[in-house]
Amino acid sequence: MTDFDFDLFVIGAGSGGVRASRIAASHGARVAVAEEFRVGGTCVIRGCVPKKLLVYASHFAHELQDTANYGWTIGEATFDWAKLRDFVASDVDRLERAYTSTLDSNKVEHFHERATVAGPNTVRLASGREVTARVILIAVGAWPVLPEIDGVEHCITSNEVFHLPELPKRIVIQGAGYIALEFAGVFNALGSHVTVVNRSDKILRSYDHDLTDRLLPILQARGIEFAFNRPIGRVEKQADGSLLVHAGEGEPIPADVVLVATGRKPKTDGLGLEGVGITLGHNGEIPVDEYGQTACPSIYAVGDVTDRVQLTPVAIREGHAFADTVFGNMPRSTAYDCIPSAVFTQPPIASVGLTEQQARAVHGHVKVFTSDFRPMMNMFAAKAERGFYKLVVDPASDRVLGVHLLGPDAAEVLQAAAIAVKAGLTKAQFDATVALHPSMAEELVLMR
To answer: What per-residue string of b and e applies to 360-394 under the rule 16 or more CB within 10 Å gives b?
Structure first.
């Protein structure tokens, strides 16, 4: 028994917060969580899960074009945006119920209202009620950033894109990161005219240049237009309800929807952290140590709100490690090396470890092995898109430092390769592995 209402109070019921709540409760802690929107957080409600469902649906547009080569004769195909949108929404509802059930089954009390920090051990709910806890965990995630431009009120973000009343005939997407390009691929496949505008001439800047250099022309060949070095300056609403996008030099771009996907920042505004001695970073992030502890010893933070690595699996790992450390007497931190990532463009790319440029900066000389091939499944397609695999190797130790893939199912192939990179396996060990034929993955062990 303690003098607090709870041992742990979690602000935010996303992936990191729910995992931390469940594990802390399993260690015997009395846990409560507050969520001002919906249980599940960004990934489940308005992020990677519903977006991946849209990606799957949009794949059919390409595959239907190639059915004749497979021997199928299919009548006229039509697409119903409302049916897809509503199906995705229903699955989000299902997942929210599942996450809520997880909290209930672990006896975690949950409050469906906003919570802020009122003191080192005190949380204030939107209703005015104050609750005390020995430990407070901040897991509120991040929020899309909107530019300060005229007409920004006519733009949407990735939060709203899943609820469009109809499929836009023309969509302008600002940004060239993973969110922008994934939605560009979805809407392009579903039949929208897509224009990507970006303030620079680079896409997916954190990925290996060999992947992005090959991906860009494929996206262009699929019909996505790119307007580089053209940041949006103004969005003007027309009398008929359409939009006119003024972006850098050149003619204004007509659109029905303008999606801004230029990044996300920690959702710490108004959270009350400054009042307990926590100074936020330049992007609003919460500084923490390796165990997630802030400058206030009783307050911790995990996930996107710390702005270390904004990925759902990382938030889950951090939440689990926090609970084990604070409530399970098993101190441990999260490792941030060799984190695999994927971009579900069409085709997708996936990477783990160091890019060639990063490896050269660290190791000086490196060996690079590549495979440029046409995936067997693309033999049926009208467009002769090629796949590309790349290994970056340290010549001194023969260790594989990075694996970078472009092609169908790149993310599925990469997961196993990520285990090898994390384990420190060598190129010789890759070479000694018998190929699984015929497959795309066999290219990983055939590079010489």
So the answer is: eeebeebebbebeeebeebeeeeeebebbbbbbbb
How many structural domains is the chain composed of? 3
Tokens 């997708």 belong to 348
Q: Please state which of the ranges 17-21, 55-59, 255-259, 373-377 shows the lowest mean pLDDT.
A: 373-377
* Mean pLDDT confidence for 358-381: 92
C-alpha–C-alpha distance, residues 365 and 375, integer Å: 31
Check whether residue 125 and residue 13 sit in a common domain: yes
| Residue 347 belongs to a domain | yes
Give the single-character DSSP code of 6: E
154 is catalytic: no
The domain boundary residue, chosen from 327, 353, 377: 327
Mean pLDDT computed over 367-376: 94
Check 62, 246, 282, 437 and give the catalytic one.
437
Q: pTM of the predicted model, to two decimals? A: 0.94
Strands 142-144 and 31-34: unpaired
Instruction: State residue 1's pLDDT score.
Output: 46
